[in-house]
Amino acid sequence: MAEIVLNVEVRDRTGTGGAREARRAGKVPGILYGGPKGPVSISVKSNEFRKSLQTGQLHGHLVTLKYGDESQPVIAKDIQFHPVTDEPIHFDLLRVEEGSTVRIAIPVHFKNQDICPGLKAGGSLEIVRHDVELNCPANAIPEELVFDLSNSNLGDTIRIGDITLPKGVTPSIADRDFVLATLKVSSAGMSEAAAEGEAEG
Q1: pLDDT tens per residue across span 134-164
Q2: Among 43, 53, 142, 164, which has the highest number of CB atoms less than 10 A from its own CB?
């Protein structure tokens, strides 16, 4: 994965007025926080920020922040978008120290739905969690959590314990094996599957 670098500028003005001023200048305003240092108001050129977003690796991943000759590993914790134009309008970056652990939400995906026995039998996949908050080493944040449905049947419950997490990665909820999804009976799906079976017969 190519390294993502954000070249930032420090904003003199803070608050709503400073953010508007940055947007008028063709920049996306943001805040850098975390660690022993206080929060700093920053901005990134809009076109550079959009290019980083298009990689799909900006939000929730370790990136390099550059300010002049200085650099700092950070994680993009939050990105806000305009409700109409969908343009990025604000972002939050979290400073990351070497060897530190970060808490971050990772998306959950379910593969092989097309060959899943439970779905082919007319069931439906009821997803309880689309992402899971994990404690991860800053240099080993997983892209996604993937569960293979190729052997899942009707009535199965998929829990966090059914996914093998990378070394050093643990769920932030540690007191229970919580549910990610279930394969439930769908009346419409069962009727369709029965009709297909009769047609084949």
Answers
A1: 998 877 788 889 999 999 999 999 999 999 9
A2: 43
Are the C-beta atoms of 92 and 76 separated by less than 8 Å? yes
- Confidence (pTM): 0.66
Domain covering 5-97 in this structure, CATH number: 2.40.240.10
Strand segments, DSSP code E, in the chain are 5-7, 9-10, 27-33, 40-45, 62-67, 70-81, 88-95, 101-111, 123-127, 131-137, 145-148, 157-159, 170-171, 179-185
Q: How many CA atoms lie within 13 A of 133 on its CB side?
A: 6
The three-class DSSP label of residue 193 is helix
Domain borders along the chain are 5-97, 102-200
Residue 127 corresponds to which tokens in the numbers above?
């997803």
Burial letters 50-85, b for 16+ CB under 10 A, else e: eebbeeebbbbbbbebeeeeeebbbbbbebeeeeee
Dihedrals φ, ψ of 162, to 5°? Answer: -85, -5
Query: How many CB atoms neighbour CB 41 within 10 A?
Result: 18
CATH superfamily of 102-200: Ribosomal protein L25, C-terminal domain (2.170.120.20)
